[in-house]
């Protein structure tokens, strides 16, 4: 198999292969051999471009965090439009309907991966930490527009929304939660933050 593929293309190919394995088989199936087989590249390609497997996984997580940001930037820019609960429901459904729900247990399971990620994200789980910050920014914008109560604690709301929604999506083997169930969880959390 050719190994002279441009670094960027190989990274993308390997990351996409790892994502497919995570979504299909879960974090326990993710090995360097499984990734290179799924990507259809020589076994040594991964280690040619990454110091070790945990280095690869850290770069995968950070890449997926970067891919998540535009969705939450769009959410922030949507402040003042649509329904707050509807906007949040849509963003969280997209977040947890992606590879994020499989990456969270991967980070929890691998001590060395968590240590590597601490260099980039000092506290929390990277995908959830970033999503929480971006969701809080959206909620703050809605609060500033008077669509949430002036005393609404947007950081507590964001954390509660993320935690509650993650629980709905956490069972990768079961059916995805119905949109109505996600919306109900979001509206319940936001109920106390409605302006009077």
Structure write-up:
By secondary structure, the protein is mainly α. 69% of the residues lie in helices and 0% in strands. It is built from ten helices and no strands. It starts with 6 loop residues before the first helix and ends in a 6-residue tail after the last helix.
Query: Helix- and strand-based class?
Result: mainly alpha
Write the CATH architecture name of the largest domain: Orthogonal Bundle
* Count of distinct strands: 0
Helix-strand pattern: HHHHHHHHHH
The CATH class of the largest domain is identified as Mainly Alpha
Instruction: Give the overall pLDDT as a whole number.
Output: 90
Low-confidence parts lasting 5 or more residues at pLDDT below 50?
A: 1-7
Output the CATH homologous superfamily of the largest domain: Tetracycline Repressor, domain 2
Alpha-carbon Rg, integer:
19 Å
Quick one: biggest sheet?
none
InterPro entries: Homeodomain-like_sf, HTH-type_TetR-like_transc_reg, HTH_TetR
Domain HTH tetR-type: 8-68
GO molecular function: DNA-binding transcription factor activity; transcription cis-regulatory region binding
Protein name: DNA-binding transcriptional regulator, AcrR family
Key descriptive features of the protein:
transcription cis-regulatory region binding, 196 residues, Arc Repressor Mutant, subunit A, mainly alpha, Tetracycline Repressor, domain 2, single chain
